[in-house]
Amino acid sequence: MAPSIEGKRPEVKSPMSTTCCNREEITPRYRVTVVGSGNWGSVAAKLIASNTAKLPIFHDEVRMWVFEEILPGGEKLSKAINQTNGRGGWAKIERSTRQYEEDREAGTGIAVEKFSEATIGYRQDKEVAQRWARLFCTPYFLVSVVQDVEGVELCGTLKNVVAIAAGLVDGMNMGNNTKAAIMRIGLREMRALSKLLFPSVRDSTFFESCGVADLITTCLGGRNRKVAEAFAKGDGKRSFDELEAELLGGQKLQGVSTAKEVYEILSHRGWQAIFPLFMTVHEICIGQLPSSAIVEYSEQATNFSIVEGLAQYC
User: Fold this and answer.
1) Which end of the chain is more exposed for a tag (fewer CB within 10 A), N or C?
2) Active site annotation includes 92
3) What is the tens place of the pLDDT at every residue in 55-96?
4) Would you tell me how many other CB atoms lie within 10 Å of the CB of residue 95?
């Protein structure tokens, strides 16, 4: 979960003295709260706490809202976090983060301080975006800001559809060359659709961590790839819903539902023929096409120069 910054009404530090000449300079300080203590919420809290302790514009206490649960020893999660070592905010964060270090999702690498990146999209106020970046940025976790909200959001959404396609390729043992080709085509469809929907989307956004880097990560090891691989290995005999329940332990797929929404948009606007990968993924997910169709569609693949021309026209 991302932290919420109470930026509208920053607290003002009280003067040390009541006399005019001895007052400290008035400095705004922002409070940060993390809502949720799951894998990413815990990692985010750790990053934020390490930075608020050093940055004078923030209060050094970071509060984390948790979904209460009972630990194996019978103790409440919130009580265990609050009592850890009695050292205040940092100890709370550290304890909560350790609970998820065995998780194999993306947040784990950051929790153990492996090098990673992230992107923040902003519309106009670069100063606010940079303030958010300062909350998260560390030597091992680099955060960039780009003036492209729609581009960043669409990258984060559409990558999951491409990951389904990559998982199907893995499930049929088609090899790395085929998978790389699917990822490349997927990235181009991501870019073309984004620019058709929002002409303001910047090409450079797709070369940020939210674009090509996140796409690669999701296609190599994400939950959408994992479930799609199992779907293809079973020749589509078990639905994505069944496999999701069995393989993800309560986590949810994004790719299948996103593919459906994208399919509806493309059908409504008459763009089916120019986005064959996106169309094919949805039709495989609902059982209209076999998994092998993920590469067979290429016989009728569109000319991407036409797509790019449409993007420029729109």
Assistant:
1) C
2) no
3) 999 998 888 888 888 878 888 877 777 776 334 333 333 433
4) 17
